[in-house]
User: Fold this.
Amino acid sequence: MRLLLTVLLAAVLVPVLVAGPAVAESGKDCKVDPCKTKCCCKCKKTDQQITNFVHDVTIPWPFRKHVSDADGDGVTDNIDKCPNTPKGARVDAVGCPMDADGDGVYDGIDQCPDTPKDAKVDEKGCSGDSDGDGVADGIDRCPNTPKGVKVDRYGCTEMETEFLDTGVIRTSEIRFETGKVDIKPESYPIVDQVGTTLAQWPELNIEIGGHTDNVGTDENNQKLSEKRAQAVMGYLVTKHPDIAKGQFTTKGYGESTPITTNDTPEGRAQNRRVEFTILNKEVLKRESPLKR
Assistant:
């Protein structure tokens, strides 16, 4: 008889508790609970409270035990394997928060749910781009790119990529007045680009090597290459105060190490070059602004 009464009581109480008194009042005062539980008009009871109430009235007193949800994630404590889930985080069937884009900010809290892998994010899960080159911080291997410079998918210029991969920057774009050591003004942007790159590596020991073509005597080309290397170093330490003069040594190679033929104007132009060579390449292996 007691069991029959219990079943009948549950059958009557559950619909009333779920629907609430507003059903009889055409639903005018019915509002959905902020936690997105079922509507319980006026009494404003949550699903958990309803469950506990039904449990109390249908289970004999010695056997009552409420099934609670301490962190409010919708998974009851008896099966919740992650009992301290932050408010607002989406969870799986066992109450553990999910992170679809793997940025360390849980789904539901993450306001930028499609963050690229390895990007640095804030507490909202959104990434920044400090130098404005279109590559997110954390992915950007060259985070101080000058504005407007074209970069690859890692945020680096072609020059910086060569530098990272080989430890050498080689350029024939630094041009000098014929037979002189004066850097032509149109070459300043190239030297400045090199300076911006090297300024991020104060630990590096760098040799600035000057090279010429084979026009003229060996002796003159040797002296010319030495003075041109010194001119480049002087420009860098003057225009880029973050660069320490003690980082650099200069050396003239004259015409002794061509990289292509000297038999054509194009070949001679490539051989008239400046090379920035890292002498302590082991530094490149460390974690740094340029190599992440």
